[in-house]
Amino acid sequence: MPSSSCHTVLAESFFHRNAELFRPHLAAVGLSERILSAPESEIPVTQYVALWEVLGREVSPSIGLEVAMRTESGELGAYGHAIRCAPTMELVLRSLTRFMVVLTQATQLSVEDDGKWITLAYRVTDASIVQRRQDAELTICVVLNLLREVTRNPQLAPMRVDFEHRAPRDLTCHREVFACPIRFEQPDNRLYFARELLDMPIRTADPRLFQALELFLEQQRQSRAASTDVLSQVAHQIASSLSSGCASLEQVASDLKIGVRTLQRRLAEHNVEFSQLVEEVRRSLAENYVMQSDYSLTEIALLLGYSEASSFCRAFRRWTQLTPQQFRQRSRS
């Protein structure tokens, strides 16, 4: 895992296929062009989600849905291949949810069956990632597209879709993609299907290949899930401690009820330094405060643990290549 990140997304061939879309905007979120041709790259989740928000502002407000509709299982590495090869819908849903962490950490995809509906719920679990509309729309639409792919039914539609963010001004693309009622400002992002979904035949099944992929993915899941658990706890504690000025290694270790050396050892196991986690959490929260609030720069600086607004402004410009004022104006325009 890269030392610059707490959680990561695997590039797979997804970034290569969308290289021309991503390339002009990588520098804005601190990513290298190397990821466009290196499927083994692990991309920090904070920067990955931030990239989608940049694309939403600079390219199209519905970019997540637009890219998702042309995304196929083969672009998602072993995770996508396992979903495609699963012999039953039950195993398709199990693979979608159980192995999500192999592809992307700090996220959760779950399936629920209440006897009437089959629902798939998605959320980002990293407390420092607040702006995430494009990631939510991309992921929910990719899940739907994968279900359409394995059933070879391009008309498959949910009964309802929920999103946690506010309703966009233009819902034309949403209505075309989902063809069902859509609700916003909900507790999470969710697809609702009738239980008949479980009876749909899988047209792409390959049971022998699925068996091999499932074993491999389970090994990967255990490794990446363990990393996610530890780093999510630390990132959440940092976010909670910044405004009080107590986001120190010693204080976070105390809050987590572990020793300082134990915390350092756990972070080292994932090639992560505590100071880098603080920096990432600060950046994510800073972008959210600047975009979504009317706080003054002094107030934001204090919320993030800076003693002066000037120190915050220098850090913000280093992160985004923009002043906070420029960033706020651009996001609101």
UniProtKB/TrEMBL annotation:
Specify the domain of life of the species encoding this protein.
Bacteria
The alphabetical list of record keywords is: DNA-binding, Transcription, Transcription regulation
Q: Per its record, how is this protein called by name?
A: Putative AraC family transcriptional regulator
Instruction: Please name the PANTHER family in this protein's record.
Output: HTH-TYPE TRANSCRIPTIONAL REGULATOR GADX (PTHR47894)
User: Domain HTH araC/xylS-type, which positions?
Assistant: 232-330
* Entry GO MF terms: DNA-binding transcription factor activity; transcription cis-regulatory region binding
Q: Which Pfam families match?
A: Arabinose_bd (PF12625), HTH_18 (PF12833)
A GO CC annotation recorded here is: cytosol
Q: Which organism is it from?
A: Metapseudomonas resinovorans NBRC 106553
Cross-referenced InterPro entries? AraC-type_N, Homeodomain-like_sf, HTH_AraC, Tscrpt_reg_AraC-type_HTH
